[in-house]
Specification:
The structure is a homodimer.
Chain A: E1 2-8, E2 15-21, E3 24-28, E4 30-32, H1 45-50, E5 55-59, H2 60-74, H3 78-82, E6 87-91, H4 94-100, E7 102-106, E8 110-114, E9 121-125, H5 126-136, E10 140-142, H6 154-177, E11 187-192, H7 198-209, E12 215-218, H8 227-240, E13 247-249, H9 255-262, E14 268-270, H10 273-279, E15 282-285, E16 288-291, H11 311-315, H12 318-326, H13 330-357, H14 360-372
């Protein structure tokens, strides 16, 4: 497995690269559709593939609870379990432990929590999470970190950074002591925390860089802070991260967030926005977002989006999609999700082309201006 | 549009034929997946096509209420609206008016009812239904009939038969006075009623045959009567219907019901069983039904059904499908629906081959015996 940095923009920090796993090559910048429970909600794997996505995200915490790590392990790993021929990254579930679970208790050793499904008690340590991810078998494993709330005081963030660094060290040790179980290689990403504090972000990033993992993630953003702050923290952090390694901004974001973060040196993204918003009737276009539950689409017989290359976008009208949402038909979720992921995949693919051509900055400016233009 | 009777079995009344519309050729016996609201629930049209289905059912009553007849008409007809390149038959909605609507009032002129969605008042006549179906634009239009409950007294059934015959006459007159609106031809099916009474079924069938419609349907069955009674009524009715015209048994049935009815001379079927049961976790196999919500499938890594030729059946394990149902993931509905429709389509396709080969009766007996064998 390796990451090859191909080209760096001259006017911004935007980069293009190739991320190679035993399941294929992923062009970066890359957007990972979210498939929490080993399914990108409402899409067949062949339809996910058709959007252009070659790397999907799943979640170790969720899969540990359902169907259980052993089931996925017995299936021969998550790719075989879900019939996905591309690559997979699993989030450790650190974030989910903090956001979903009741009665969690965090110590330097690990985190005790209760399942959000049945209230059963569980305990995660850095080592345990590595073992779960060896069993699940993603190409990329995120380590356990501590993600403080966006409004946390500095002292709380300092503590989370210390613990994140401690756990990163133990994770790397355990990663090196263990082996892949399913016949293909795995790599680990460490996660930079530090809230909105520049010195903490830098301190954390420097420490993690010294541990020499395959890739680096920026965590604890997109948790409620203003966009400009998120961009600034990203900017500080990528300045510290090594150029030759992939950078992944976790849980981000809107189309504009992606472009602003790409321009600050980020290579990889995941976000529920295209999939979750699709299920609420929101579709993305180059001219901004459309709400398909709005009565105005009822007799609009234009295609969902003639500029997005997907079966959903190019073969069904807004009137039909609006009808499906109005009648609570499952196909509405499928069509909107397929379109939105294809839109996101086309966005990062185009960003990549523009970076290689040297026209990224101008294209980004034009895209954002068209995307945010107030419609009359 | 035409129906060509190809071959009739010597040991049973089973037949093979070709049903030709401006949207293609449908081999019979044929099973129509149910797409009430211009969507086969949870499947993309290209996935419906992949199951082998070339004719789908939609419902005039439901589409009249949502999205409204005008919308489908403006879209250029139901095929374009739903992006379905095969053929479509619309049920008139007579059955739905009786089963779903509150405060219906039936006279010889027509039926007054309230929408099951918003309680708004509506009035259907035989002529109105023909006009709705001209607007919607299916290849095959079912006329308005009166479908009495299965436990109705003879006098009630007699009355329903009289009204069904009266409305059939008015429907045919109005059908002949009106023209297709969307650039392709349409044909009408009349519906035989008569409950479980042989003389009423024969009387109704004879009267409708004299009206010389394109095809004939057997209605008012599979509404609670024992299977053997359904088979017998079907047998009486097909004896009266002209051999050279297609026969459609409405709302039927289980795999066994299909084979028993094919052997009694039926050419076409529709039923919610494969799609609705799929959504409840039930999948069909040659060895009987399986409930994917049963804990026993949790770590069964065999394919959903290696003998059914669909992407769902051949690429995903029972363990994965069980996981999706357990986690309430939408993809569960898609996979189970795709498999079940493909199973039904393969069943009627195989019946066709066996009829042509002259081995239908033996194959049917073997199929039923394997399908109903008690598993230990």
């Amino acid at each position: 497995m390796h990451f090859t940095l191909q080209h760096t923009d001259t006017l911004t920090k935007a980069r293009t690269g190739l991320l190679t796993t035993d399941h294929g090559v992923i062009e970066t910048p890359a957007f990972m559709p979210v498939g929490t429970l080993a399914t990108v909600k409402s899409l067949l794997p062949r339809d996910v593939w058709d959007t252009g996505a070659r790397l999907c995200l799943a979640n170790a915490y969720h899969l540990y609870l359902r169907p259980g790590t052993e089931i996925v392990k017995e299936a021969g790993g998550i790719h075989r379990f879900a019939n996905w021929n591309g690559s997979i990254l699993t989030d450790s579930g650190g974030y989910q432990v903090y956001s979903l679970s009741a009665l969690r208790k965090i110590t330097d050793d690990g985190v005790k929590f209760k399942s959000h499904i049945d209230g059963s008690a569980h305990y995660f340590t850095a080592e345990k999470v590595i073992e779960i991810e060896r069993d699940l078998g993603p190409d990329f494993m995120m380590v356990l970190d501590e993600c403080p709330p966006s409004n946390a005081e500095r002292a709380v963030v300092e503590n989370a950074v210390s613990r994140t660094m401690l756990w990163a060290e133990r994770s790397m040790e355990h990663f090196q002591k263990t082996k892949p179980l399913h016949g293909y290689d795995q790599a680990a990403y460490l996660i930079v925390q530090g809230g909105v504090h520049r010195d903490l972000r830098e301190q954390c990033a420097e420490k993690l860089v010294s541990m020499n993992s395959f890739g680096y993630a920026i965590g604890g953003l997109a948790v409620g802070e203003p966009n400009e702050v998120m961009y600034e923290v990203t900017d500080w952090t990528t300045d510290v991260l090594p150029k030759e390694k992939p950078r992944y901004l976790m849980g981000v974001g809107t189309p504009i967030d992606l472009l602003e973060s790409i321009s600050r040196g980020v290579d990889m993204f995941d976000c529920v926005i295209p999939t979750r918003n699709a299920r609420n009737g929101q579709i993305f276009t180059a001219n901004g977002k459309l709400n398909m539950r709005n009565a105005k689409w009822k007799n609009d017989f234009s295609l969902i989006d003639e500029n997005t290359p997907s079966y959903a976008s190019q073969n069904f009208t807004k009137a039909y999609l609006a009808h499906l949402f109005n009648a609570d038909e499952t196909l509405a979720l499928t069509l909107a999700t397929m379109h939105n992921i294809a839109f996101y995949e086309q966005l990062v693919r185009t960003a990549r082309v523009k970076i290689l051509e040297g026209t990224f900055l101008q294209w980004k400016t034009d895209f954002i201006s068209r995307y945010t233009l107030v419609k009359i």
